[in-house]
Amino acid sequence: MRPERRAPLALAALALLAPAAHAGVDIDGLALGLSERAVLRRLPSAHCQPLQWKSLAADRRCDDSRARVAGLEVRITVYLKSDAVEAFDVRFDSRDAERMAQLASERFGAKPVAKAGEKVRTLRWQGHGERGLLSTQPGERRASLLVWRGDFYEEIYRVR
Question: Coil, strand or helix: which one is 21?
Answer without folding.
Answer: coil
